[in-house]
Write a structure and sequence with these properties.
Structural class: alpha/beta
Largest sheet: 8 strands, mixed
CATH topology of the largest domain: Rossmann fold
CATH architecture of the largest domain: 3-Layer(aba) Sandwich
Strand content: 15-25%
Shape: globular
CATH class of the largest domain: Alpha Beta
Mean pLDDT: 92
Number of domains: 2
Distance between the termini: 16 Å
Low-confidence stretches: none
Number of strands: 14
Strand order of the largest sheet: 3-4-2-1-5-6-7-8
Radius of gyration: 21 Å
Order of helices and strands: EHEEEHEHEHHEHEEHEHEHEHEHEHHH
CATH superfamily of the largest domain: Glycogen Phosphorylase B
Length: 390
């Protein structure tokens, strides 16, 4: 009998980003292990907050991508800073998801990507009503993350979100967490649940040869979401670049307009827009360092760039604290700095530019350490065993 699994996610290619890549890699891995995979997701709209060309004016769209059956549902797309509009966007997909799955025959086992929290809630609710075996994939600790980022305040609305969070955890048979901190948080609430640490590990072939870097010109890169949590615009405003250092930026998000303004004012800052993952990997290997910042230390958050860019042999400058910082130190992947330590960042860059302080280890060693420590196939093999046992 053919094994089947349903994956519910708010992010999926052709959208870019860690969440879309993680779910796509997971779905393909299940298919390669004799599962028939159904993915239900919204019409692609992230991160711009508008539905992509070719997908507009659709209520339901069916696709087949690399043998995966994809059902895309309409939503009110928005990336507005207005909290009401963002909530409306999540609720529109969540409600549409609930009604779609209510009348559809779907696999018994279901993986639900959570966050966004409300999308996870509607996926969990309909799956529970239809007596599905729920695997909850938790990538962010909402509403706690929102509180730490200053987006949310404790009160009536926060209490509702906490109840939604607990409902999601309570309903799951197996809980996957992208960090140890996520799992520790949930274990305090529901210690009897089954847990598995499923990090956001990439699944691509590392380059055979590491590019020789020019040490006369130091090239630093940031590639990823340009949002409040990353604080790249603030870094651009306050960074002090020696004459032989350039800072290149790739990506998209709410801060992109301000970053473009700053790059127009400073010839050592360069904004290159959003490029696809394969092209980005070919570009990144030519840089000396990658910057991975977080504005505030968010409990449970471990940027996926740590795993992806170290696999390319790219030394990391990690501007934050927490579990991500611990991983960079433990596996000798680069430098770590305190939260928002712009002065420390400027001093480090100055030392690197003057070659008074050299990288902790070579690019070859970084790549070797990353490949050994962050192995997608080994991680998925254990997830598959967990899935088959449910």
């Amino acid at each position: 009998m053919q094994k089947e699994i349903l994956i519910i996610t708010n992010y999926f290619p052709p959208e870019k980003g860690a969440a879309a890549n993680r779910i796509f890699d997971m779905a393909k891995a299940y298919k390669n292990n004799d599962y028939e995979v159904l993915v239900v997701c919204p019409l692609p709209n992230y991160p711009k907050g508008s539905i992509f060309n070719g997908y507009k004016n659709k209520l339901v769209l069916s696709e087949n991508i690399e043998g995966l059956e994809i059902k895309r549902l309409w939503l009110f797309a928005s990336n507005s800073k207005n909290k009401f509009l963002r909530l409306l966007s999540m609720l529109s997909f969540g409600l549409n998801l609930f009604m779609y799955l209510l009348y559809k025959k779907t696999p018994k086992k279901v993986i639900i990507q959570c966050s966004p929290l409300f999308v996870g809630f509607f996926g969990v609710l309909i799956s529970k009503l239809k007596r599905k075996i729920i695997i909850l994939n938790v990538s962010d600790l909402w509403p706690l993350a929102g509180l730490q980022m200053g987006i949310l305040k404790k009160g009536f609305y926060y209490n509702i979100l906490e109840r939604v969070e607990r409902f999601n955890y309570k309903s799951a048979r197996l809980i996957l967490g992208q960090s140890k901190e996520i799992l520790n948080h949930i274990k305090l609430i529901f210690p009897e649940k089954s847990f598995y640490l499923y990090r956001n590990l990439p699944n691509f072939k590392a380059p055979k040869n590491i590019q020789t870097k020019n040490l006369n010109e130091i090239k630093i890169v940031y590639a990823g979401l340009l949002g409040v949590a990353q604080g790249v615009a603030n870094i651009c405003e306050n960074i002090k670049l020696p004459k032989n250092v350039i800072f290149d930026i790739y990506g998209d998000g709410p801060e992109v307009e301000r970053i473009i303004e700053l790059s127009n004012e400073n010839s050592q800052l360069n904004y290159h827009g959003l490029v696809n993952r394969d092209k980005l990997h070919k570009v990144l290997v030519h840089y000396n360092f990658t910057l991975i910042p977080l504005t505030n230390r968010i409990y449970g958050s471990v940027p996926s760039k740590i795993f992806e860019y170290s696999r390319l042999g790219l030394p990391i400058i990690f501007l934050s604290e927490g579990e991500g910082s611990e991983l960079v130190d433990k596996y000798r992947l680069g430098y770590t700095l305190k939260d928002n330590d712009i002065n420390g960042l400027n001093n480090l860059i100055s030392n690197l530019a003057n070659q008074t302080q050299t990288p902790l280890i070579s690019s070859v060693e970084i790549r070797k350490n990353a490949i050994e420590a962050f192995n997608f196939n080994n991680q998925f093999k254990k997830l598959l065993e967990n899935t088959n046992s449910l």
